[in-house]
Amino acid sequence: MTTKIPIIIDTDPGIDDAMAIFYALASPELDVVGLTTVFGNAHVDVCTDNAIRILDIAGRSHIPVAQGAARPLAMPYRGPADYVHGVNGLADVALPLPSRAPHALAAAHFIIEQVMAAPGEITLVPIGPLTNIALAMLLQPDLPQHLAGMVIMGGNAFVPGNASPAAEANILNDPEAADIVFGADCPIVMCGLDVTERTIMSSEQIAGIASIDNDRARLAAQILPYYRDFHLSHGGPDGIHVHDSTCISYLLAPQHYRAVHHPVRVDCGQHVGRGKTWPTTRHALAEGPWGGRRAITILTEVDAAAVVALELSRLTVA
Ligand code: BDR
Ligand code: CA
After folding, report:
1. Residue 16 known to be catalytic
2. 90 lines ligand 1 (CB under 6 A)
3. CATH, range 5-315
4. Considering only Cβ atoms within 10 Å of each terminal Cβ, which end of the chain, N or C, has fewer?
């Protein structure tokens, strides 16, 4: 038996967050040591309740959930994306009450505690705004050196944004935090729109989930049509862009991706480019805004059919 990869998923559930969490929990290659929550698709208390509910539905209520930031580092919260994910973050489906209260530690402290107790082992998987990760780095500046790395859903290197012409939603929700995190001194993989918008789970595939006989799939079958309808009504595909689950697919099957390697800065200005992730493309600049930053692994190509098939196969695991 190979060693499992221990991960902490930092999340704002969120329909695609729920899918990513189910995918990780059903993958024997991964050990989900905790979930941390952040504002984003909904207010953080709603996201925390949803994270606990998702674990309850997956029969994994023993996994800790630590609640994190309610707002970005340096601006007001832009507000819930209820037209994408529903007012309750999960397609407004009626859900049971969460089985428990969150962990006593706040998310940033929980991350620090877990990482420092297992130096070099834990991979952070942020799939929401990067506020908790930035806070953890500010509180514990050597945190990155004690991580195995980070696999982040966020950003757009060579394609337009989805929350503005410039920016992807998770990054636009806290550009200052994202710029701190992309400057971390550890291996970072950026699963941005360059690959997530090319990874499509079709309406037909979504309809097929209804025939899978387990509680995770039953919730997925209820919530995914809402997310698909958002895509259809906003000029997207007849299906969904697979955003957050891309981090899990990359961890399980990196051979299905191609990447380039560049330092990344985030536009923290107050004008139209706010939240844009900017790789250096031509020069490894030793000085200036990109100077001293490690190269980020920026995913640029994906075998979409293979990774969607992998995710669907894990949904059938009892
Ligand atoms: C990201 O934004 C959120 O709405 C999704 O959950 C995902 O993390 C995609 O841009
Ligand atoms: Ca998310």
Report:
1. no
2. no
3. 3.90.245.10
4. N
